[in-house]
Amino acid sequence: MNLLIPVDCNKRHEALLTTLDAAKYWAFIELDEGQIINCKFYADRSAIEAWVETVVVINEQEYVWQFIEENIAVLVAPKQRSIDEIVEAFLFKELHDLNI
User: pTM to 2 decimals?
Assistant: First the structure.
C-alpha cells in the first residue's frame, strides 16, 4: 500500500500536509503491515515512477479530478497534518474518502 502526500518540506518528521498548489514536495509513503517502510520525497509528481494508490489532500476544495481520472483514491485529512498523523489516521480509517 502506498500514499502520496503534498507537503511543505522534504524532512520526514517536519513535513506538513499542504494544499496541492502550495506543495513544494510530494511525500511517497510505502506501507507494509501498518508500518512505514519507505518515505521518499519528490519535487515533481511526474518523477514518481511507482503506481500511486492513494493521495491525501488537505480539504474537499482541492482540485482532485486529475487523481480520480488516474484511478487514484483521494482521501481528505480533516485535521491531521504530519506524515505520522496522516498514516495513523489512514490505518484507522479516519480519513474522508472523496471517491464516494
Answer: 0.95
Rg (CA), the chain: 12
**pLDDT digits over 35-81, tens only?**
999 999 999 999 999 999 999 999 999 999 999 999 999 999 999 99
Residue whose C-alpha cell reads 481528505 in the numeric block: 76
Domains of the chain: residue spans and CATH: 2-97 (3.30.420.130)
The sign of the CA dihedral 17, 21, 25, 28 is: positive
Say if CB 77 and CB 56 are below 8 A apart: yes
How far apart are alpha carbons 3 and 54 in whole angstroms?
Answer: 5
- Contacts (Cβ under 8 Å, ≥6 apart) of 29: 2, 3, 4, 5, 36, 38, 39, 83, 87
